[in-house]
Amino acid sequence: MTETTPVQQLADDATAEDIDSIRTRTSVFVYEWPVRLWHWVNAALITLLIGTGWFIASPLPSMDFAEATFQFVMGYNRFIHFACGQLLTVAFAARIYWAFVGNHHARQLFYVPVWRKTWWHEMFHELKWYAFIAKTPKKYVGHNPLAQMAMFFFMTIGLTFMLATGWALYAEGAGQGSLPDLAMGWLAALVGNTQILHSIHHLGMWFIVIFMMIHIYAAIREDIMSRQSMVSTMISGHRTFKDDLPE
Amino acid sequence: MSQIETFYDVMRSQGITRRSFMKYCSLTAAALGLGPAFVPKIAHAMETKPRTPVIWVHGLECTCCSESFIRSAHPLAKDVVLSMISLDYDDTLMAAAGHQAEAALQDTIDKYKGNYILAVEGNPPLNEDGMYCIVGGKPFTDQLRHAAEHAKAIISWGACASYGCVQAAAPNPTRATPVHKVITDKPIIKVPGCPPIAEVMTGVITYMLTFDRMPELDRQGRPAMFYSQRIHDKCYRRPHFDAGQFVEHWDDENARKGYCLYKMGCKGPTTYNACSTVRWNEGVSFPIQSGHGCIGCSEDGFWDQGSFYNRVTDLTQFGIEANADKVGATAAGVVGAGIAAHIAVSALKSAQKKTQSKEEV
């Protein structure tokens, strides 16, 4: 019992089957801490923005617990919305910065490699996997092609759209000549009637909601059914593979 | 240019005293948001400058702009019309009619080439070669182009001339077109509203005459002094909005208390105008003060923004009753159902796989 094999460091509850599994599992470090932090901050801010945004378009029932002077229900709701929007802007800018200085996988969010033949090949395979035609998915270190496309259209494009329209709406209250107005006021003038801006910003919210539904479902499903870890990867940064087959 | 009387000359000949004239100058300065230092400037301009000739033409419209204009209290439209400007052609206000009137128009254009202001009320319909609006036997489009050719500047009165208004609402059968899309080579000031506030109209003219230049315009070409802020920004019911106190139904207690009309579809948050500061009819009231939400009449395409009584606009592209929430919730529902079905098939498939691998063993 004095052998010094790595197995010895295992807790007692490891069965022979478990030990087999450990030997076939591999892992790779994918997401650096700024990417992971951004992901969760972004998720929290978007959730808050959806909630408060909903109550800006359809306010809570009227409350009458104080004189209007001492009551600030709609005001606080709007404040949270604006504050989250501003934090989201800063976080998104930091994330773009990290795409330049971070590792290869930090850049995947910002482009769709349509020029790459293998990308299309993998994409059709992934579609077949989701359509229950392919028996096994491929192993991906970063995003699979379908996920990459979804990230790009819903997040990179979607977030940019929400930030642009959001700041244009904020510029209305900030007033002409203010910084938000100088930055995004042109968009309000381009649209003409800002009621339209409200409508498209509102539709954008549903765009993001639909992404959230698909994103969370796909992440959990892939975590269970694919050959690699998903959810924990966004927490620890490590992608674990469940088998050691090369393909 | 032939000798024209100054504003002051005309005012004196109207029997207005020097004292009343100075009072009028200070009132005008106040209306324009200028300091007392500008009063002598205005007085000086009026004493020395010849009156600016104005041609006022009417296209597709309802004349509500003229109706509003002649009700101006500060300065009185009478003062503006009789003393400040030389309104040489306005087919609804002038005494002349028919050939006489058309001759007056041509006279003014010839006499003051490049020096007159063209005020346009209404807009030209472009379909069928402009046959939907005929003035003096010719399409209004022709009259507008002819009068605009030698104008110094153009004022687009009201929502019609500025944005198109009701006659340009979808599907716009006559192709009613705002002035700036027909005349593209002249400086144009938009004074939108249906109608614009009288004091805003006379204020814009007074400014142009006093300082001999266009007022500062915003990105959409509207005078910044009247259109740089939303109704919402200066609304006296704004504290109720921030407090979250809304009128929920037209006849409820909150309506009687004068709470915010946001939930009743008030377009104040997206409407740029001076109603909540200047108000109407000598500052008596404005729509929100009278208990009805703003309908956004000074905004581009305000007839096409769904009901006046909804905050979340109807999107008719998706059916008469749809809005962003209904469209979004339907799409989310479809995606949700798709996910549920996908979960079910995934579960069945993996169960099947397990049984198969068991059988193989």
Concise synopsis of the structure shown:
Chain B: It is an enzyme of class 1 (oxidoreductase). Chain A is mainly α and about 250 residues long.
State mean pLDDT of chain A (0 to 100 scale).
Answer: 90
What is the chains' assembly state? Answer: heterodimer
| CATH 4th-level superfamily of chain A | Transmembrane di-heme cytochromes, Chain C
Number of DSSP strand runs of chain B? 7
CATH architecture term of chain A: Up-down Bundle
Strand content of chain A: under 5%
Beta-strand share of residues of chain B? 5-15%
The parts of chain A where pLDDT drops under 50 for at least 5 residues are: none
CATH superfamily of the largest domain in chain B: NADH:ubiquinone oxidoreductase-like, 20kDa subunit
Approximate helicity band of chain A = 55-70%
Rg calculated over all Cα atoms of chain B:
27 Å
CATH architecture of the largest domain in chain B: 3-Layer(aba) Sandwich
Strands of the largest sheet of chain A, in order across it? Answer: 1-2
Binding site for [4Fe-4S] cluster 2 (chain B): 232, 235, 260, 266
Keywords (chain B): 3Fe-4S, 4Fe-4S, Cell membrane, Iron, Iron-sulfur, Membrane, Metal-binding, Oxidoreductase, Signal
Binding site for [3Fe-4S] cluster (chain B): 275, 294, 297
Domain Cytochrome-c3 hydrogenase C-terminal (chain B): 227-308
